[in-house]
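Re: beginner question about structure tokens

> Can someone show what the tokenized structure looks like for a real chain? I only ever see the sequence side.

Sure, here's an example I had lying around. Input first:
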Amino acid sequence: MRIIKLTLALSLLFCLSCKTAKNTTSGKKGKAGIACADIGIKGPHFDWIIEKDSALKGYTERPLPAAYKVYSIDSEQLHSFLAFATAHPEDTTLQISIPLPEPIGCRIFDLPTTKARPGSNNELIMAMWGKDNETKQNSIKINFDGKKLFANIAWDAKAYVILPLQFDDKIYYITYLKTDVPQRPAVKQSASPKIYRQTFDR
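And the corresponding structure tokens:
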């Protein structure tokens, strides 16, 4: 009887460990703390490091979207990716992973390499356009100003944005649906004061 109980206990423990392992490796989040790590990128890439939404607590430079996800990028990986892009012929295609909001999730975009121009401090300034690897329809435009990456994604008639935010000496990236950004309140212009001219009867 003891042998049967021990066998059942070991079997249960084994099943629980299998389930835990499956939950931590399934999906497209990949390594802990890295978004889109297991999506299958070919060639050089950079990681999207998952940050807590509270990382931007206290940020007041601009209104934040109603819903967004926060990431950071290893600057060395990003610069290596861009340097590779500019060092290869224009007929070479790179791939980039983009963590879009659910239900879209992680997507691979194909990017033809492009030439960069040097900025005022010899940093790389470049722009790239690409298409979704699977649908071949939805598109992305990426701009790099030498330090930060900006991106606009057109997906099924909706617009998504990847926006860099400098906060606490660190560059964060938020991904969000463009329509989720609150509109700045319109500034009411005060009516021009009426000017009354005094007239005198002659």
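Each token stands for a local structural state, so reading them left to right follows the chain. Confidence is low (pLDDT under 50) at residues 1-30.
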